Amino acid sequence: MSDPRASSVVILGSGAAGLITAYTLLQDGFTNVTVITRDSTPGGVWADERIYPGLTINNVHGEFRFCALQMPPARDPNGRLSGSEMRDYMQKFTATYLQDIILYGLEILQVLRSNGEGDPGWTIKVQVVKTGEQKALKFDRVVLCTGGCSRPLVPKELSPSAAKATSFKGRVFHSSTFRSQSNHLEAGNNESMLGDVAVIGGGKSAQDAAAYLARKGIKVTMVFETVDAFFAVSRPLPDFIRRSRFLSLLSPHSTLDSRLERFLHTTSLGSNITHFIWKKIIAGSFAAAGVTDHSPLKNTHDAFWGIRINDEGILKPDGFHKLVNAGKIKVVAPARVASYSSDGLVLNNGEKVRADTVVLATGYTSSWHPIFDETTSANLGLNRHPPDPNILKAENEWNNYVSLQSPPHTHPSHEQWASSVYRGIVPANNLLNKDFAINGAVFTTNNGYAFEVMAHWISSYFLGDKNLKLPSSPEEALAHADRNSAWLRKRYPGTLLWANESYSSNLAFWTWPQTIDELLKDMGLATYRSGGNWLTWPFKVIELTEIEHLKEERDAMRKLG
Ligand SMILES: Cc1cc2nc3c(=O)[nH]c(=O)nc-3n(C[C@H](O)[C@H](O)[C@H](O)COP(=O)(O)OP(=O)(O)OC[C@H]3O[C@@H](n4cnc5c(N)ncnc54)[C@H](O)[C@@H]3O)c2cc1C
Ligand SMILES: NC(=O)c1ccc[n+]([C@@H]2O[C@H](COP(=O)([O-])OP(=O)(O)OC[C@H]3O[C@@H](n4cnc5c(N)ncnc54)[C@H](OP(=O)(O)O)[C@@H]3O)[C@@H](O)[C@H]2O)c1
């Protein structure tokens, strides 16, 4: 391929990651960019067909905003954008910048090299959702943006066919279809007769579904073993706490670049301060939510050691936690659902829950599995792999992290977790081909900022920018991914087995600013962009404007050679 800008690039998926990648490539002069999605509107989880009543954005930095387009302020006094505001933003971004490049209504069936291994070019086999017609489309490069929340995870014993086999006559649906179910309810037609509802799961989808149904006056019972942790406050926290590096510094990163981080994580005093603040944050959240020691909502995932936490801000009076406190949502916990019975669910403790309708808020599985055959997956280097025993020793490298002493107990398979994706963006084996990248598989709390920087990194990679620092070989890239995996096993013992691989090639949760700085550094660009002096930098508000001229900065670097 001579001029990379003339090559054809396909972006798989039209969620936030796909949209910003398409935009960035177009801005960089790529002339042949196509986005493919099964959806009929843009936005991925924020697409019109996915958003449901009561859905709001759920993170500290929040906005999923891109530099090129302002986002109107949220109407919610809590400052949270609703699902429909997010949908409108994604639609406006698409209408403004991505007219005519998105092919909607195409289910991606398979992604494979056109002429076998070693030859350039990719074939994307698709099926037209409306007609079932199948086609093969050819492109020079692929960016995989199919996300971690587009393919429902339905445990076998809870599937609709398992329900049928046990003569359960009620309705069973996954939370991913909650929009269409709520449409029926809103329309008040016959299909809206759900009866008593059981919601399975303790994640955010389960909480949203249960709260919505309870607000409609429907009798809801929720079953979960552990519920998501949450941040809640009685009064809004100032931006210099909520939207600065403050929280990211209270979380150790694989490298501790600042003196403050080294103090907080490698000294006993610093570690005590770190854990004290975390405990205060969590205790304050329970207090703000009115969650008492006897409440089932006390049984949350660990906020420090994991990533299963929702930033709720000021809790709504008719939100999930308040509805549970008021007895309007019944909770059966800790328990797991084992199977169906003719009139509801059977739990692992032998108890039964009566239900006419069952909502499977049981999460999502990898969107990658169905579209890559084993050979393509292995040749690319997409698959997880058992850790290299030599790299395993790397875990000792972080033995001086006092804040990581006394981790929670983990499942033995946790030790086998290792991603093969360099920086969470390029499958290591394919590093030198420069024809395949991933956006959206790095789990962060600021998707707008992170996906945009990753899009620039991907564009530099495709363009072959000399100033983009890359490993010199696939082996070196894999060793890097292995080392990062060793770090993640140490840092997130409670979480790695939960997050499916299509959104966890890297986890940059609290520490997303440090991780993004690494990508900026790879591109030879300035880091610590929110500024401040030696005293104020941890509290400087991180603004998207910091990265609004990345294209020009990269152009200038390229000119310098
Ligand atoms: C209801 C809900 C709310 C969420 N809210 C938040 C939040 O507030 N904050 C947060 O940080 N995270 C949230 N998440 C997690 C969320 O998945 C990601 O943060 C975000 O959507 C990632 O964007 P993405 O572009 O990577 O993926 P997505 O938005 O999931 O987009 C993936 C795209 O790929 C397409 N696709 C996938 N497979 C195929 C296929 N085989 N064929 C054709 N098209 C395909 C999808 O249709 C979609 O267009 C939420 C998840 C859910 C389910
Ligand atoms: N913006 C928002 O408000 C919003 C809304 C929805 C989702 N999201 C995000 O989307 C992602 C996915 O969330 P999600 O809630 O759909 O999935 P999830 O977080 O993976 O939760 C799935 C839940 O189902 C439970 N479960 C599975 N099998 C079960 C069984 N047999 N019995 C009882 N419980 C069972 C799981 O428990 P175990 O883990 O114990 O197995 C878990 O609590 C998360 O990142 C979430 O934050 C955000």
Automatic annotation (TrEMBL):
It comes from the Eukaryota. Residues 8-223 form the FAD/NAD(P)-binding domain. Keywords: FAD, Flavoprotein, Oxidoreductase. Pfam families: Pyr_redox_2. The keyword Oxidoreductase applies. GO terms for molecular function: oxidoreductase activity. PANTHER family: DIMETHYLANILINE MONOOXYGENASE. This is FAD/NAD(P)-binding domain-containing protein.
